[in-house]
């Protein structure tokens, strides 16, 4: 797809900052220096181009820095446990203890490779101590990706797995770029369109951000929440966390993780942490639900209920399991509910049980719903549900203050994490939100510490909603670490900000065009949902 900064719209201006300007003999009174992105040294060139997309909506392209000759390609070798490792049977990873990294380096050198050990330290966050993550092993220094890839092939042939990486993705503060960041700003004082979230025709399938944008006639859009990608983890496209659309809870929260709350008028955008309660009530008793519109037994990003394995706490990019579940479904899920062993009570539009089916799975009546039970919950549902009787399904969202949240039909809530900024201060929460994996520092290294494409969202002190994408995984756009994402959000004036799905999902659309450079080799990635900025509707 053709990429361009903007379609129709007025260019408001270009700001170029090149660090300190030379003093002149006669000059006007100094003007306040624009706040530049806190990336790299302070003397980097930064350009900003701002375009008006519709009343109350601007798009700003920020390019900071330039190609850095000190950066290079290398091969990062996977490290086995090693004879001296605390866990010698552990699978190879990017980071290990110092002794294991040293053993591998010595072995590589004996086989003729130019290997080195590097210590990796990570900054402290609001809930993580930081410090040494571990040690990595790298081979060679190369001027091109192709040269590093050739060395990787030679290493693999010798029995050493690894990957070609660019040192600009490491996150060093001295790197000179470049960075490419796009910023959508919605000012509620003049915005007369609609800010909306869309998951497409159904929850269980994926669509690209540009497809979701085009189908709604949006002026602009960004990708939004995390979602199931692997069929082994659930239904691809299903939100992996809270999903409220037009005021309806269609996907339950990952316990206590943040959600981005938006309203269609662009006002009162906020970041709040959410939990939930759900019940199905019959004539004689009430049962507790464990999920909404997801494959029973599979809890993506964890944070479910007691009995989930390996944990009931949030654990990002992990699929927890539980054989004993009670999950409710609406027609929004898809053409049919998940098939499998267990029992399903099918309800019509009046909440009356019209069918009990086992095995579970099938179409729902128009306006109807269902409750699926697996494992030990089958007996509970068998006792509760009888054909011809009514069952009442209720769900309640609860915020971090313990207050009930009652979204209006003009409200959407999207899953996110970690937090980045709270009350104008840096507040990064990877441990709380499941991005610290016990015993696996390599995961934190790749997801939190290293630079990646990112999508961010938040609200500034003036009440403006701000949506940000940062390209990455290239030599022409380094991306952001989670810590850098927080710094960027604060530098853009955000009072509260949160991280949305990033990596290959990061996409921004303007006037029908994808204007950033999605990092997946296949191009734009189909996602679970997207945030849409819609033009003014007749009568709105």
What secondary-structure arrangement, pairings included, does this model have?
Elements: E1 10-17, E2 46-54, E3 57-64, E4 73-77, H1 98-110, E5 115-122, E6 131-142, H2 145-157, E7 162-166, E8 179-186, E9 194-198, E10 207-208, H3 209-216, E11 220-223, E12 243-245, E13 248-251, E14 258-263, E15 270-281, E16 286-288, E17 291-292, E18 298-302, E19 314-321, E20 326-329, E21 343-347, E22 353-357, E23 369-373, H4 377-384, E24 392-399, E25 404-405, E26 411-415, E27 419-422, E28 425-426, H5 441-449, E29 454-460, E30 465-470, H6 482-491, E31 494-499, E32 508-510, E33 513-514, E34 526-527, E35 530-534
Parallel strand pairs: 17-20
Antiparallel strand pairs: 1-2, 2-3, 3-8, 4-6, 4-7, 5-6, 8-30, 9-35, 10-34, 11-32, 11-35, 12-13, 12-26, 14-15, 14-26, 15-16, 15-24, 18-19, 20-23, 21-22, 21-23, 24-25, 27-28, 27-31, 29-30, 29-31, 32-33
Descriptive overview:
This protein has 540 residues and is mainly beta. The strands form seven sheets. The chain has a nine-stranded antiparallel sheet, covered by helices on one side. Strands 12, 13, 14, 15, 16, 24, 25 and 26 form an eight-stranded antiparallel sheet that branches. The chain has a five-stranded antiparallel sheet with strand order 9-35-11-32-33, with helices on one face. A hairpin with a 2-residue loop joins strand 12 and strand 13.
